[in-house]
């Protein structure tokens, strides 16, 4: 049985999600301890427990320790069970992270799956649905499987109450290399507010227009009508020939719309200045699919601690190697190959 130290590296929930995903795929059981040990509230929170229980259902797994607050559990999968699933977090916890826990196994299952997920779809501490759909899943679809995701109701933090549906037609994953961004085809910014004044969105877009020097036709303000609680998200989408990247900023109580927009602008400017295809968050998400494909490489910005930690956890389950090297200032290349 593989032993995982949940406090290793970045020390967050991604360690357990990656471990669950790869245990399902390889059939290798594991035990994990010190889950989120360095966090303000250590152990399994509701969204982590939902991910664990979803993996149990899909892997028909035996488990001990799956409860709120638990800092350790053992997981022994039997076989991957595709089909129709419905997972509800019951809070604003991210259902995109629950989805990413079970997606790798369902990509290689023996039949299609349909999943409904409920909880937080637009959470500042996780990839929002927009990133999942436009940036991440578009690349997975180029690797062989066919995945369609539809947002049925947004769920902003802290109220939650969101819902999205995903259909997965599995297939073997093909290697992909992303070394050039290519020409930029389209650039858009969308500021959405739910149960908040639309002026917030307009102020965010004013910053985008001035700082990025974009024409008004690239900007749109949206009032979300079916949200359970208040929320605000600023989404900037850069569509290039070889990749689509999505950058987001979330409104916070006590933080001005201008500050939210300026944070997002800085991320966009850094990405555009370095001229790499893959941003930092997408780099982190691509490691498991490329490892399952047997290899691949891409150029990105300087890797985060999340990315470095994720690579080390993947190597505990799959015989792959990673090369993470800086080519020149701020331009990095990550390569994965069979060990």
Give the name of the CATH superfamily of the largest domain. RNA 3'-terminal phosphate cyclase domain
Structural class: alpha/beta
Biggest sheet details = 4 strands, mixed
Side-by-side strand order of the widest sheet: 1-2-4-3
- Helical amount among residues, as a percent range? 25-40%
Tally of discrete structural domains: 4
Number of helices: 8
Alpha-carbon Rg, integer: 19 Å
- Please tell me what the overall shape is: globular
Query: What is the CATH topology descriptor of the largest domain?
Result: UDP-n-acetylglucosamine1-carboxyvinyl-transferase, Chain
Topology, number of strands = 16
Strand content: 25-35%
Descriptive overview:
The protein has a four-stranded mixed β-sheet, covered by helices on one side. A four-stranded mixed β-sheet has the order 5-6-8-7, with helices on one face. Strands 9-14-16-15 form a four-stranded mixed β-sheet, covered by helices on one side. Strand 15 and strand 16 form a beta hairpin. With about 350 residues, it is an alpha/beta fold. The protein is globular and about 55 Å long.
Key phrases:
30% strand; alpha/beta; 8 helices; 339 residues; Translation Initiation Factor IF3; Dihydrodipicolinate Reductase, domain 2; four-stranded mixed sheet; 16 strands; UDP-n-acetylglucosamine1-carboxyvinyl-transferase, Chain; globular; 4 domains
